[in-house]
Design goal:
single chain, alpha/beta, 8-stranded mixed beta sheet, globular, binds flavin-adenine dinucleotide
């Protein structure tokens, strides 16, 4: 998109707080760090959604099992507490990506994904998790004719796999959310819920504690080794010996070397506006509170909050040489300005609306853009990662699979090709950085040329590494 008014966009950013909006408030008192030598049945590493769901489901499956969760900092501080809050039924990062990767089992994956989203809704209600769970659905909008052509095919495609999405023309889409940029769109009414991500993470933490999971925050696991019939986890002030270990460490440096070639940390950024006035709300519509995403290869995702702010994120996806994950990268003024410019182009009627928060977070990107699993240490350790920016919903499914794998159970889930097969690994640096950078530029170029993919993207498509959500 061209930059309509950099001066106005910069002015709208002047007072931002560089902290995730969702985490900018009182936090629960931290659980104590692990001190001394402790034994358990199941150790879970990582206090994001993957670890939290795994711990919770483990207790639900077997209340007598002892479960200990170890988290480097505080539960939910990372991606799980700072994301867009789109909780999607899709396990494959969209139907088209699923069709490209797992055509033979996509109908099963879609069904399991819908059951998974129902399971999340049920758990939120059962544990009284106050996370503003709203099954609003998602509106995918076209802002260029080639995007509209692609979206028009979705209702038929979705129907083949048991889903239901509806094509809306420009007037119908604009009647839902008023933007002069919309040329059409599709509405997935049932397959996506909106949540407050940090309150979901903290609610899951509370649910885990209520079932007796022992949580230790500020407890980074520094190493993992076989120990008799179990596995020992080394931490700064203690050692945890577990019969089984589930790893949910997302894009952070992995505890198993083998994981490092499958995931690269890619930075994603978001802004939050101040609350809209009554007049601004009337101008923009949005009565059904759908999540919205536009449909370029580089896309924005946006939604409203309880108090009618707008979260506006996405577009730039930034990889730093060597896979850096340090906190300083949370701030990216260039991207914040670009996002603010795109916002004002999408919603000219909201001119003058200011942003209050700007932040970044890490996405665990893998070459198939959807989760993968693996085991180590003779099946005593299992890991899941690779959601590539769509893990709010899929992380619960990942937890189910982790528990199946650790139990050595043959289930419908473990029989899936998606579970059995790994993504293609990334090459080592410096080829890794060059490849990611080349892809980023080629994707931006394709968006500028009516979606036409150049030789690099066509090569990736041919070897099964292209992205199509
Ligand atoms: C800005 C942004 C927007 C996003 N928007 C969406 C969205 O709208 N919808 C969607 O579906 N997905 C979205 N995502 C992706 C989604 O947030 C993630 O897929 C999901 O949160 C992954 O959960 P996780 O538990 O695997 O990882 P995380 O939440 O990153 O948790 C991993 C945890 O492991 C801990 N850890 C790592 N190493 C160790 C160690 N050695 N010892 C102890 N603890 C360790 C970390 O401290 C961290 O807390 C977004 C992500 C970002 C960054």
């Amino acid at each position: 998109m061209p930059a309509p008014g950099s001066g106005a966009a910069a002015a709208a950013l002047v007072d931002v707080r560089h902290t995730p909006y969702w985490l900018d408030g009182p936090a629960p008192d931290p659980c104590p760090a692990l001190i001394g030598n402790v034994d358990t049945d199941l150790a879970v590493v990582g206090g994001g959604y993957t670890g939290l769901w795994t711990a919770l489901l483990a207790k639900e499956r077997d209340p007598g099992r002892d479960v200990v969760l170890l988290e480097s900092r505080e539960v939910g501080w990372a991606a799980s507490g700072r994301n867009g809050g789109f909780c999607s039924a899709s396990l494959t990062h969209g139907l088209r990506n699923g069709l490209d990767r797992f055509p033979a089992e996509l109908a099963t994956l879609e069904r399991l994904g819908r059951e998974n989203l129902d399971g999340i809704e049920d758990a939120v209600a059962r544990y009284g998790i106050d996370c503003s769970f709203e099954r609003t659905g998602e509106l995918s909008v076209a802002t260029a004719p080639w995007q509209a052509d692609e979206l028009r095919e979705l209702p038929d495609l979705a129907a083949q796999f048991g889903g239901k999405v509806e094509w809306l023309d420009a007037d119908q889409v604009r009647a839902k959310v008023a933007s002069p940029t919309y040329l059409g769109g599709v509405l997935d009414q049932d397959g996506v819920a909106m949540v407050d991500p940090a309150r979901l993470a903290r609610g899951l933490r509370a649910a885990c504690l209520s079932l007796g999971v022992r949580i230790h925050e500020n407890t980074p696991v520094q190493g993992l080794e076989s120990d008799g019939t179990g596995v020992a986890l080394r931490t700064p002030y203690g050692r945890l010996t577990a019969r089984r270990v589930a790893l949910g460490t997302n894009a952070f440096p992995p505890l198993l070397r083998r994981q490092s070639s499958y995931v690269v940390p890619v930075w994603d950024y978001a802004l939050m506006t101040e609350p809209l006035t009554e007049a601004q709300r009337a101008a923009v519509g949005w009565a059904d509170r759908h999540g919205v995403a536009d449909s370029g290869n580089l896309f924005h995702y946006y939604r409203v909050t309880d108090d009618w702010r707008i979260l506006w994120g996405g577009y730039d996806a930034v990889y730093h040489f060597g896979g850096r994950t340090d906190d300083r990268l949370d701030r990216n003024p260039e991207t914040f300005l670009r996002l603010a410019e795109h916002f004002s182009e999408t919603f000219p009627e909201l001119a003058g609306l200011r942003f209050t928060h700007a932040w970044g977070g890490i996405i665990d990107t893998c070459s198939r853009f959807s989760a993968f699993w693996g085991t180590a240490k003779g099946g005593r350790v299992a890991y899941a990662a690779g959601y590539t920016g769509l893990g709010v919903g899929a992380s619960r499914f990942a937890g189910q699979v982790l528990l199946d794998l650790l139990a050595g159970e043959q289930t419908e889930r473990t029989a899936l090709e998606m579970v059995r097969r790994k993504p293609m690994p990334f090459p080592p640096e410096p080829v890794r950085w060059a490849g990611v950078e080349l892809t980023r530029r080629a994707v931006a170029k394709a968006d500028a040329r009516e979606g036409r993919r150049g030789p690099w993207l066509r090569t990736l498509d041919a070897v099964g590494l292209g992205f199509d959500s």
